[in-house]
Design a protein that fits this description.
The structure holds three protein chains of three kinds. Chain B is of the alpha/beta class. Chain B has helices spanning 17-32, 47-54, 74-88, 99-112, 217-230, 238-243, 273-276, 308-324; strands spanning 3-8, 10-11, 14-15, 36-43, 60-65, 92-96, 115-120, 122-126, 129-136, 141-147, 152-156, 171-176, 186-192, 206-210, 233-236, 263-267, 284-289, 302-305. Helices cover 29% and strands 30% of the residues of chain B. Chain B starts with a strand and ends with a helix. Chain C has three domains: 7-43 and 108-182 and 300-365, FAD/NAD(P)-binding domain (3-Layer(bba) Sandwich); 61-98 and 187-299, D-Amino Acid Oxidase, Chain A, domain 2, CATH 3.30.9.90; 380-440, no CATH class. Chain C has 16 helices and 19 strands. The chains are: A alpha/beta, B alpha/beta, C alpha+beta. At the A-B interface, helix 3, helix 4, strand 9, strand 10 and strand 11 of A face helix 4, strand 7, strand 9, strand 10 and strand 13 of B. The complex binds flavin-adenine dinucleotide (FAD) (2 copies) and adenosine monophosphate.
């Protein structure tokens, strides 16, 4: 079974962040493997360990994003595909899905995994869009995956509106993964060493018959114009003291000030 | 081309409040922009919802009927919404950002070549383009995103707008929807609802959420007692769902549910940004934490610095007394 | 042993990365292991990287689009403070604007990460592009020994072997002790604790307040009530749109005082003069880290042995002279010298103590050990009680008299001085202090 896992490189969202003239700025310009993509890689590794097969990771991004591919290879993916786009700033999920679709039309796979969203845009669109473009059955927000060998089907446990849903997908199919699915492994020293000898295929947009101008001009249908602070909440009241005092204070406020009881 | 279509989601025989929030806001938006407002409900028996929807003032309701809609089946929802779009050709499709919507909205957008702006905190129509603000970077900031595509799909975070009734003359069109499940390559095998789901978390008016601070079974009991006394839904942080003390369905936050109750109790929760992303829209937030510097206090309307094991039993008792009187 | 390296470097801080850069440039096959999620993840400095060393390691680094530094220093200030006053020696020079800069202000999480990227580029260009590695997120638990010679490392279950090991693990030098180069027990008076806040301002406000121009920056050290009587000093460095602000406090003295570092820092911030300097900022980060006092008495017994070298703060290479802390430049230079020694050993195919001894010689001949030896007296002097209690009080008291104009006959400066001295110390004490100071400089 071959897994093709779409991985994204994102800014480290845990680093302090400020807005200057509507633009985001971070103290560290560190880029990392998207946590949701990392869970997708982890799950593919677990399933191929169990059922055999290979994991390939596919990334659309600038030259520097190669280190993120290396990270996935160090985790244990067998091969990498780097679709080089130096400047991705004008691209939205639709454009990434278009590029990934063009690649997957020429490559073979049984299962495509993506993150359920990306840590930077929190969009959660690429997976569904890609599935549609490739005509694949899919499920989103998976918190567990198993493979039913007899039926050649992936069984997805997904988080739905009212409870968890078990969905069976015939391969080839696509699943978007939640980071609640697993804890991605930290590459071992051996993994890190082997990663440098693994094959990373470099693909240009032109190899896929695509053009950056068209991708940012017409395929992308949304534009980001800037950023602003999340409006803060009104400062509240904080109490210290013994439990009795705290509780009677609170009851009083809930009843008479907030009137929510 | 001249209408706003609002998809009204239902669950377990009830309309989702977050859908009514969107409908209510779109009423205003349609009036401001000279567009008509239409609503769609997709269900095995949609007629049961049309009166309620009508009280929010759409000029027309599409009652789309098929048993598959009640089965949590993503492909049914996708096909249903897709055929409505083809039929009505709206300017804007707006809906609450439920899990089902999150699952289909990308594919729906790709299929209709639409601009998709998911999970917005607010949106408006200006000069022919749809402008929205949505949390990004782990909900640390808002991005200003717009689309001027002919069709734009917007999903809205719960609690972003108030649901206010505003009845108007409404016609209902019932559509018997044809949907063939036999050929599907995906099959819904089972839905596991957890026992904790007595009250639907995403809709609840009062939520009691547990964090790592509850430690063990004893803490869990204290949370359940408090929720019980308030008639509240139970929620949890990731640290707790991961530990298995509460089921994963109850997780609140960026990867879990987004809630917007009138009253939210954060008990033994530190207030990591990924958790706050799911609850910051709550009206009144009560935080109980023994660490006076815990970030949760920055969001709390009322913060109690103290030991939850001492506070909860007293609080539950007082609430019971209050409710009894 | 197909994976045997010429060298394994333990620690990806400044010493480790500088060694790695040198090895990559000299076509050695090496592995650098860093326990943090990335280089710099948990590293803390004030931080000014003094001197021109970086321009040798990364030539013309200032032309790098995203060079990992915040500002360069052209303005230095040393401030004595008592309860309500400050008395500063202030020096600013246009000549400091020239490259290579004489000192740059860095934030470690960014700087170390940037430097590690530079090392990766150097690896890519070396003969061992696919066989040398920077491995983050891995903790080295043991240096493997064979017949008294260091032969490799163990991390968890994994073991890797090399002809030589450079230990660049920083101030908590557990592995240096494990290989027997440092006594197992190191007295607490060899250690200080650094606490630091990063405070954010509007960039324009920051630039106006501290008279910054383009990338120019200011360093300010503080002596006196900054530390509530605890031995130590304070610092303030301007970053791009934040300042690094903090204290370095002697561990023993802190313990004796019963105070918490964070509380001392808050008092420091509340000082009437500093309050005005700091106002309007938002604290975005707080960190604490141990730091060596730079006392030569607690240096490792030796810094080389069969197959192993110790560099940077792991070897206690640091000088805290009151007007500056020099740990990073020492780490950088010792890392480079250690790597150069390994390169020579590789040519000679001899990694025994006999060859590696050259590292010690090189270090003795360099500014690192020369300065540490020459200024040991100054360091002792600085760490004396008078220096952080009596002197600042005396200086500020003098300032109060000297600068106040009262419409009554003004005493001569000499009289003012003697009045301050009487208040804070005896002549005899002062004379002793002066002699001691003069001797040590
Ligand atoms: C990509 C990503 C997505 C994530 N998504 C989510 C998400 O959807 N939801 C989510 O919740 N998290 C999410 N997280 C995890 C999140 O970052 C935090 O790790 C998590 O929210 C911490 O849970 P907590 O507050 O319960 O635990 P902790 O941070 O450990 O806090 C426990 C708190 O309990 C207090 N406490 C302990 N004992 C007592 C006592 N006796 N009385 C009172 N107080 C006590 C402590 O002071 C502490 O503040 C995500 C993380 C990532 C990286
Ligand atoms: C508050 C404060 C202010 C300071 N201000 C200044 C200043 O202004 N100027 C200045 O020059 N110096 C300053 N210093 C001192 C300076 O930070 C240090 O001297 C310098 O960082 C030493 O560099 P190093 O490479 O030897 O060690 P470090 O920078 O500490 O690096 C050691 C590295 O090794 C890693 N490591 C440790 N053990 C292991 C292991 N077993 N396995 C794998 N990895 C390991 C660590 O994670 C770390 O990255 C300051 C220090 C403090 C605390
Ligand atoms: N540039 C990209 N390269 C590879 N995969 C991507 C890229 N962008 C998005 N993805 C995948 O799509 C998921 C969700 O993306 P998004 O729609 O941006 O939230 C990510 O977690 C990735 O798995």
């Amino acid at each position: 079974m071959k897994f093709s896992v779409c991985i994204k490189q994102v800014p480290d969202v845990s680093a302090p962040l400020t807005i200057k003239d509507g633009n985001l700025s971070q103290d560290t310009d560190r880029m990392v493997l998207d946590a949701y993509s990392a869970s997708a890689v982890e799950e593919a590794l677990v399933l191929t360990d169990k059922h055999g097969g290979d994991v390939e990771v596919v990334l659309v991004g600038p030259d520097k994003a190669k280190e993120t591919i290396r990270k996935a290879l160090a985790m244990g993916a067998a091969t990498g595909v780097h679709i080089v786009v130096e400047n991705t700033s004008g691209l939205d999920s639709a454009a990434f899905a278009e590029i990934l679709a063009a690649w997957h039309k020429k490559s073979d796979y049984d299962v495509i995994l993506t993150g359920k969203q990306s840590q930077d845009t929190d969009a959660g669109l690429t997976g569904g869009m890609l599935a549609w473009k490739l005509g694949l059955p899919y499920a989103a927000n998976a918190v567990g995956l198993t493979y039913d060998e007899a039926a050649s089907a992936i069984v997805v446990k997904r988080q739905g509106d009212s409870g968890q849903e078990m969905v069976e997908l015939k391969t080839p199919c696509l699943v978007t993964c939640s980071n609640d699915m697993n804890d991605p492994r930290i590459p071992s020293l051996k993994g890190i060493m082997q990663s440098k000898r693994k094959k990373v295929e470099t693909v240009q947009l032109s190899d896929l018959g695509l053009e950056l101008d068209a991708l940012s001009g017409t395929v992308s249908q949304t534009q980001v114009h800037g950023f602003k602070e999340v409006p803060g909440r009104e400062p509240g009241k904080k109490f210290e003291g013994d439990a009795e005092e705290l509780v009677s204070n609170l009851m009083n406020l809930l009843e008479n000030e907030a009137k929510v009881l | 081309m001249s209408s706003i279509l609002v998809y009204v989601a239902t669950q377990d025989g009830k309309i989702k409040r977050s859908s009514l929030e969107v409908l209510s806001y779109c009423k205003r938006l349609s009036e401001e922009n000279g567009l008509s407002l239409e609503a769609a409900v997709l269900d095995a028996d949609p007629a049961r919802f049309t009166d309620k929807i009508a009280s929010y003032g759409p000029s027309k309701i599409y009652a789309v009927k098929n048993p598959a809609f009640s089965n949590h089946l993503a492909s049914a929802l996708l096909e249903g919404l897709s055929s409505l779009i083809s039929k009505i050709n709206p300017r804007l499709l707006a809906c609450a950002s439920t899990e089902s919507v999150k699952e289909v909205i990308g594919a729906l957008g790709a299929r209709h070549n639409a601009g998709v702006i998911p999970d917005v905190a607010s949106f408006a129509i200006q000069n022919g383009s749809v402008n929205a603000e949505r949390p990004v970077m782990s909900a640390k900031v808002l991005s200003k995103t717009s689309s001027s595509s002919d069709l734009v799909l917007v999903s809205v975070r719960s609690g972003s707008y108030d649901a206010v009734e505003s009845p108007a003359e409404t016609t209902v069109e019932t559509i018997e929807f044809d949907f063939e499940t036999a050929a599907l390559k995906s099959l819904l095998k089972e839905v596991i609802s957890s026992a904790g789901d007595k009250v639907d978390l995403s809709e609840a008016e009062v939520v009691v959420a547990a964090g790592r601070g509850i430690k063990d079974e004893q803490g869990r009991k204290l949370i359940e007692d408090l929720a019980d006394s308030l008639g509240a839904a139970v929620g949890a942080s990731r640290a707790v769902t991961e530990s298995g003390l509460f089921p994963a369905t109850l997780q609140i936050g960026q990867t879990g549910k987004v809630v917007s109750p009138q009253l939210y109790f954060a008990v033994g929760i530190s207030g990591a940004i990924q958790h706050v992303a799911g609850m910051a829209n709550s009206k009144v937030i009560v935080a109980i934490n023994k660490d006076a510097d815990a970030p949760i206090f920055q969001y709390a309307t009322y913060g109690l610095v103290g030991d939850l094991f001492k506070i909860l039993p007293l609080l539950t008792e007082q609430i019971r007394t209050y409710k009894a009187s | 042993m197909e994976d045997k390296f010429d060298c394994i470097i333990i620690g990806g801080g400044i010493a480790g990365l500088s060694a790695a850069m040198t090895l990559a440039r000299n076509n050695a096959k090496f592995l650098l292991i860093e326990r943090g999620e990335f280089s710099g993840a948990k590293n803390v400095s004030g931080g000014v990287l003094w001197g021109e060393g970086l321009s040798k390691l990364v030539p013309e680094y200032w032309n790098d689009e995203d060079a990992g530094f915040e500002r360069y220093i052209n303005h230095r200030r040393l401030t004595f403070m008592d309860g309500d006053s400050t008395f500063s020696i202030d020096f600013k020079s246009e000549s400091f604007n020239e490259q290579p800069y004489k000192g740059i202000i860095v934030l470690r999480s960014k700087f170390d990460n940037w430097l590690s990227e530079k090392v990766m580029e150097a690896i890519e260009e070396s003969d061992y592009a696919d066989e040398s590695f920077l491995a983050p997120n891995i903790l080295v638990e043991e240096v493997l020994m064979d017949g008294g010679k260091a032969v490799g490392i163990r991390a968890g279950e994994e073991k890797f072997y090399a002809d030589s090991i450079i230990i660049a693990e920083g101030v908590n030098n557990l592995l240096t002790r494990q290989v027997g180069l440092q006594n197992k027990y190191v007295p607490a008076d060899a250690l200080a604790v650094g606490v630091k806040e990063i405070i954010r301002y509007d960039q324009k406000v920051l630039e106006d307040r501290f008279q910054l121009n383009g990338l120019s920056g200011m360093s300010n050290e503080f002596i006196g009530t900054a530390t509530q009587g605890v031995e130590g000093g304070g610092f303030l460095y301007t970053n791009k749109d934040t300042i690094s602000f903090g204290l370095v406090l002697s561990m023993i003295s802190l313990r004796d005082s019963g105070l918490k570092p964070y509380d001392i820092l808050n008092e420091f911030k509340a000082h009437p003069v500093l309050k005005d300097t700091l106002k309007g900022g938002e604290v975005i980060e707080y960190s604490a880290h141990a730091v060596s006092t730079g006392d030569m008495k607690v240096m490792p017994k030796e810094i080389y042995s069969d197959g192993v070298l110790v560099a940077g703060e792991a070897a206690n290479l640091l000088m805290n002279s009151g007007k500056a802390i020099q740990g990073m430049d020492y780490a950088m230079h010792s890392g480079i010298l250690a790597a150069e020694t390994i390169v020579e050993a590789k040519t000679k195919k001899d990694f025994s103590a006999g060859t590696l001894k050259n590292y010690r010689t090189k270090l003795e001949d360099s500014f690192v050990l020369k300065d540490m030896k020459n200024f040991q007296g100054a360091v002792d002097f600085l760490h004396s009680k008078q220096m952080f209690q009596t002197v600042p009080g005396l200086v500020c008291d003098f300032g109060k008299q000297f600068f106040s104009i009262k419409n009554e006959p003004t005493p001569k400066t000499r009289e003012m001085l003697s009045k301050s001295v009487k208040k804070h110390s005896s002549y005899w004490e002062l004379l002793k202090l002066g002699l001691k100071g003069a001797r040590s400089l």
